[in-house]
Structure formats: structure tokens, C-alpha cells
Amino acid sequence: MSIYKEYLQETEERKNQGLHPKPIDSAELLSQIIEQIKDTENEYRKDSLQLFIYNTLPGTTSAAGVKAEFLKEIILGYVAVEEITVDFAFELLSHMKGGPSIKVLLDFALGEDVSNAQKAADVLKTQVFLYEADTARLKDAYNNGNAIAKDILESYAKAEFFTKLPEVAEEIKIVTFVAGEGDISTDLLSPGNQAHSRSDRELHGKCMITPEAQEQIKALQAQHPDKSVMLVAEKGTMGVGSSRMSGVNNVALWTGKQASPYVPFVNIAPIVGGTNGISPIFLTTVDVTGGIGIDLKNWVKKVDENGEVVRNEKNEPVLEQVYSVETGTVLTINTKTKKLYNGDKELIDIAKALTPQKMEFIKAGGSYAIVFGKKIQTFAAKVLNIEAPAVFAPSKEISIEGQGLTAVEKIFNRNAVGVTPGKVLHAGSDVRVEVNIVGSQDTTGLMTAQELEAMAATVISPIVDGAYQSGCHTASVWDKKAQANIPKLMKFMNDFGLITARDPKDSYHSMTDVIHKVLNDITIDDWAIIIGGDSHTRMSKGVAFGADSGTVALALATGEASMPIPESVKVTFKGSMKEHMDFRDVVHATQLQMLQQFGGENVFQGRIIEVHIGTLLADQAFTFTDWTAEMKAKASICISENDTLIQSLEIAKSRIQIMIDKGMDNHNKVLQGLIDKANKRIAEIKSGEKPALTPDATAKYYAEVVIDLDIIEEPMIADPDVNNADVSKRYTHDTIRDLTYYGGDKKVDLGFVGSCMVHKDDLKIVSQMLKNLEKQTGKVEFKAPLVVAAPTYNIIDELKEEGDWEYLQKYSGFEFSDLLPKNTARTEYENIMYLERPGCNLCMGNQEKAAKGDTVMATSTRLFQGRVVEDRDGKKGESLLASTPVVVLSAILGRIPNIGEYKAAVEGINLTKFTPVTTK
């Protein structure tokens, strides 16, 4: 069967699913389609023309290369296609974004045919995705006196690719659709269990919210054809949990507008709102697509006549509605006054959603065009030896004399590019920064690859110190979807220049280590900036930002990221931990005590948590920084003692060396380069030349939080509170309860020790608890299943050397095998311990899941509805989050233990301890 016939067969199958033909990225398929176009008698010619014009992916896909060359043949007159004139061929090239299309356009612009040269030049003046090979051709032609090259460069220097775009409409009419009450997780917009389909945008769009919600959105659009639908998180924050580009893509697919008539299912300009705004990392993704994210503030804390906040019987602030955004409400965004209106009535100021920079993103159809446009303008001005005119909104530069710098301000100042020389910048400043480490994970990686192709990037930026492509999110089950997607992803990323978990040539053993753990090891500088395709990109060294797949692609391609310097909240500790407590309990208590200290206001949201935790090694400190995603912080920074940082760097070096020994380094010797940089950093610390990063004594913080360890008496549990009468209070990470609250009798159906929140000591705790309980009772029996997934293979190797793995094997009823990986997801569990493959496992919810309606006790980070466990008729699934010893004991007892049982079970066990740094 020909590849086209196979495509027709697939198209027929998609039609039965209510889908259009799949967008074409294959050179082989498009080549056959072109042959059918050339054959005027071919029965498939009409359909082939449609597919060629409207259904071929742009950028650097292999199909784009074939398309560009065929259009070149048409322009040159080598081939005549009645439906594609020369002018139309140039128009099609203009929508292909970059890569092969730019090469063809430069061939014409710098060629001898005057008419085609001018047409190509006119198209090139609208393009921004040019790379070094392209700009070098322009520069050489200009230096050789080429008039067209001069004309193009002068246009670039004036940034006409931006200035000649239509202005943003003064009024944008919207109609609301309330997607949910309370915090809306990106899982609602793009469920984790549908991760395999994210790169197939139309198919993936079918999973947004519910089919019923999709029909409601379509009905609103039919009723209000002149308005955009705004998705709303009523009484909550929109887009918590992760950046999830696929979530924004889905919102844009259903409510946005098509970016190009010749590129299928790539939509832009979504509009989203939340009573408490938009999650910071999700908002970055909205910017990528030229959308608008609004902090609605339509519910506020009620105050009495004395100005005091009114509280209910639970001591929670009582909210009152300022204005309604119920589904079907018609509102107006005014981009000039920066206000939101209902008719003539002004509701709120939305200037933060419409800053000069964000207005540029909206005008250009997304932030990438601005990033690349600025680079092109700078390049052109330099070649022409002129000063680039001020076209773009100037970066806000805030410098406060006499005010010291927080840790994040220091890192941003060190890594900033393009700022006023000698100027020290404080929070609120807009900064372009160089990125040191980049991480791509496997359920968003295919989208990152698509983004790289779309922006015509072919090789990693040389200024990136190291980048890693993981295989952890699809580690649990090697099913047909994983087999189809992951090898293709690994080859693309390996060719691009990343260190990859799987070797396309099969020279080294496939790794499924949790990405955050690997990034934490390969970050070898406390002054580094890290960008990763996951909300839990939160390192214990440097400052790390979880990002959408597009921002990851941008960091890989350019080595840069752009954002305002965030405000910081300082967190310090006093007192001492009780002997029976685990550091995970301190992490949860931090969130609880912060909310108590600030009357229920989450001062962490959208800010940097600067946590002074200097005596904990990187693995243990990561438990805190990892959880800051659930605290809704933008990122976290660990302030470490010199000696502790040196120890952490030595551990990192040893783990990077293991990767090298396995054969994972590439021809650029990236991993060896990281070891060399780590040695340099250690030498700087030891010599006193550059001690571990600390803030200035005169730094200014948004708030300061002091956590009292003395008052943490019991293990702390984050509870989804699934039956709270106030729907907006369910499935947040803010309900933190102690063990006694549950009375020692709440049934637990499954325990899970794993995800990025655990380190080697947690696995040792499992082993030690089994030994403890065996001594106390003679044997250990599980009354609920216990799933254990080590985060990395290194941990398993070390546990084997230290004798703990053997003890875990003794009690396990299942142990993973890399030689025989599971090819179907487990749906039923026995009351045994499962030793699963390193990776994310239950925390992701895209492969393994608990049984519907289960109550799960887990060490992981996610408690959102349907993530780890789905509901069943008559019973809500719930995922409670706790420390390793609580999870293990809950699985053994089949219920949450009481405090006496817990203390007896952990007696003598070396739990993760933390001693606050005392002021010297």
C-alpha cells in the first residue's frame, strides 16, 4: 500500500472520530502528494492540492522542506500548477515561518531575476525566524553591494515586520464561560492521561474539560459571533499545577483564532480569567500565544464597619461578589483605558494584563515573534552600523538606590543581557537573561520538538551549559503510544544537541529517571537559571522556572528567556524538629503557617520563595523547592551554607560521572563540561573568591515568613477536602491537617511512595519501617497496596550497595524489569508492595492510576481531581499527600494511623532532619 493510501485509511478512521485529516509533517508523504498534483488526470489531485496548501506543517519539518522546494520550482516556471500562481507561491512561503522557506526566499532575493527578487524581499521583510546561516547570507550580500540585501536590512532595522502589523483593537468584546469553581488545574484543560495526543492538536482538543462544555462554548460562539469566549476560574486561580502549553493550545483551539489560514489547528489569542488571577507559569504560556490573562477580582474579602475582615466559623475570610461573571456575561476589554467594562460600567483596572510588552505580544500573535524580532533588528542595525530606532516598548528598569539585592535579583543581574550598562536592577524590572540549564520532559517533548520546527531551529544554542530530555513521564508503561512517540522524540532531541534518557543508537541503557532529579544534579552553579518543561522544575541550586513547551523550545534555540524580575518572600526557621517528624512535615507546615500568619492570603503566589535552608543537602532541600509549585510560587531559591553547597556539588559531580560512564555524553562533551564547571565553582567557594549565594542584608522582600518548628507536633497531610461544602475550597493544596484530625480510622485504599518529592533516604525509610514493624509484630502484612517508585536508577544502585533494596525485595510482590517492561497499565492492585520502574508513576496519572473512587495516601505533589485517582459513582477519589512514613504505615494498616501508632513505627528511624542555621 502506498504511503498516501495509508494516509487515506488513517483519514477515514479520523473521520469516524469527528476529526479532519492529520496535518502532514512527512517529506515522503508530501512528495507523493506533489506527484499527484503534477498529474492533472490523477483521481486524488483535488484533495492533494488541498492537503499541500492547507494541511502541511511549516518550519523545519521534512514536509516543509519539500513544500518550499516545490514552490520554488513553480516560481521558477519549472512546474506549472494552475491553482498556484507565482504570487500565491510567495504568499504560501510567507506563512511557512522559517527554515527551508527562508532559504528559498533568500535564493530569490539575492538572485538575478529582479521581479522575483523584489517579491521575495517583500516577503522576507515580514519574517523574523532567521538564524545564523540566514543572516550571514544577508550580511555577505550587503557587504558585496547587493541593493536588495540593503533594502531588507534597512526594513529589519526599522522593525517593519512589527510596525506594519495591524494595531490591537481598542475594544475586545468577550462573553464569559465559567469552566469551574475554585482553582482550575491545567489537568482540566489538558488531562495528563491524554498526554500521548498532545502533538495532534485537533485530537487533543477533544479532551478539554468535557464534551458538554465544548458544546456550550460552541453555543456561546454561535450566539455571540462577534465576541471571544473567555474561560473563567470562578472563586479561584486559572491554570494551577503546570504551564501545560497543550492546555493553552486547547483553549485557543476552542476560543481563539487561527494563526494562519494555511497552518491547521494552530490557534492564537485565547482569553482567560480567574477570580484570583492566572497561575504565573500558565500566564507565560498565554503570552506565548498572544492571549490575555485577567485577574478578575470579582470576589473580595468582606470587611466590617471597622475595616476588619469578616470570618466564618472555620476562621476563613468571608467573600462577597463585586460583580458577576456567570456564563454568558458580555464584557468589554478596552486596550486603551486598560479597563474591563460591563456595558458602560467600569469593573476593574486590568493594566497588568495589558502592559506595553503584553500588548506587543498580542499585536505580533505571540511572544516568540517579539523575541526573534528584537534579535533581527539588533543584527540589522549592527550590520548597517546605525543605532536601532526605539520601536519596541522599553524594558522597565527599576533601580532603587541604597537597596540591596535579594538572591533572585542577584541571579538576574548576573545573567541579564541588553540592559543599561552599570545599572543594578530590582524586582519588577523586565529582563532578558541567559539560561544555563534546560530540561524537556517526554509528555510535552513532542510539542517542544514541534515548536522548534515551527521556529526553524535545528541546533541547541551554544550558550546553554547543558540540556536534558527525560523519559520519566512515560516510564511506567511501555505501551504502543510510548513506543510510537518516545524513540522519535529521543532521536529529534539527540540530534538537536540534548543529553537524552534513551539513546537512539541503543548504545546505553534507557533511563527513566525523574527529570527534576536529573536537572537538580546537572545544575552545578547556585547562580544558574534553569528552564524546564514541567511546573516542578524547581532546583535546590540556582533559580528554576517551570515553563510551557514553547518557552523550553525558545530557551533551547536562543539560550535566553525573558521575564520580569519577580518579588521575593523570605522564609526562615526557628526552633527545632521533634524526633518523630520528617522534613516533609516541615514543608507542609510552612504552607499552613504562612496562611495563618497572613490571614489566609497566599503571599507566595507568583513570587520567589527565598528559603534559608542552608544545612540541607541538595537532595533533601529539593523536597521544599519542589513543593513550592503547589504553594503557587513562581520559583524558589535555597540559601545554602558554603560547606553544604560544596557537598551537594560533589554529589552532583559523581552522578554526572555515572551518566558519562554509561555513555550518555555527546560529541560536545556537555556532561564533562558540567563537571569542569562544578570543579571551578567548588574552588571559588573554598578560596573565598565567590562564596555561596546569599542576599544582601538590605534586600527588600514582599513579605517575611518565620516558620516555628517547635509547634509542629504531628505529621502534616495535604488534603483535597473533596466534600467541602464550598466547591472553591476543594482540590487546593492549602488544606493542611495534622494526623489526629483523622481519628485513626480513615480508610486508605492505596499508598504511593514515589515521584520527585522523595530521595534516597525516603526509600531507606521504607526499608527501616519494614524492619521496625517486623520486630514489633513478627511479620508485616499490607492491608492496602503500597506502590514504590524510586526517582532514579542511581538511588536503586546505592540501595543495593547498602542492603536496603534486598529488604524491599523481600516484601515486594512485584518488581519491575527493564527487559520486560509493562505494556499495559495496571488497573487492579493486590495488598502487596510493588517495586515500580524509576519515574513519575501514579503522580502523573497518564499511565498508571489508582482504582476509581480510592482514597490514596501519597508522597507525590498532585491532589487534583482525576489526576492520581478518578471518581466513581457514589464515591469521590481522593489523593492525600504526606511524608513517606505516614504513607507506608497507612498502607500497612489500611487506614490513617493515630499518633501513637505512628511514633511506635518510626522509633529509631533516621527520618529527614533539618536544623535551622543560627545567625553567626
Question: What would you note in describing this structure?
Answer:
There is one protein chain. The chain has 920 residues and is of the alpha/beta class. Helices cover 38% and strands 15% of the residues. The chain is built from 31 helices and 33 strands. The strands form nine sheets. A seven-stranded mixed β-sheet has the order 8-7-3-1-11-12-13. A six-stranded parallel β-sheet has the order 30-31-29-28-32-33. A five-stranded parallel β-sheet has the order 18-17-16-19-20, with helices on both faces. β5 (257-258) and β6 (267-268) form a beta hairpin. α2 (27-38) crosses α3 (45-54). It is globular. The termini are far apart. The mean pLDDT is 94.
How big is the Rg?
28 Å
Query: Biggest sheet, open or closed, and with what strands and sense?
Result: 7 strands, mixed
Structural class determined from secondary elements? alpha/beta
Strand content: 15-25%
SSE layout and pairing:
Blueprint: H1 3-16, H2 27-38, H3 45-54, H4 62-76, H5 86-94, H6 100-109, H7 114-124, H8 132-143, H9 147-157, H10 160-163, E1 171-181, E2 184-185, H11 186-189, H12 201-205, H13 211-223, E3 228-234, E4 238-240, H14 245-255, E5 257-258, E6 267-268, E7 271-274, H15 280-288, E8 292-295, E9 299-301, E10 319-321, E11 330-334, E12 339-342, E13 345-349, H16 356-364, H17 367-384, H18 407-415, E14 416-417, E15 430-434, E16 437-440, H19 442-454, E17 466-469, H20 480-496, E18 499-500, H21 515-522, E19 529-532, E20 543-546, H22 549-558, E21 560-564, E22 568-574, H23 583-597, E23 608-612, H24 618-627, E24 635-639, H25 642-662, H26 670-687, E25 703-708, E26 716-718, E27 736-738, E28 750-753, H27 760-777, E29 786-789, H28 793-802, H29 804-811, E30 812-815, E31 833-836, E32 855-858, E33 878-881, H30 884-893, H31 899-906
Parallel strand pairs: 1-3, 2-4, 3-7, 7-8, 16-17, 16-19, 17-18, 19-20, 22-23, 22-25, 23-24, 28-29, 28-32, 29-31, 30-31, 32-33
Antiparallel strand pairs: 1-11, 5-6, 9-10, 11-12, 12-13, 14-15, 15-21, 26-27
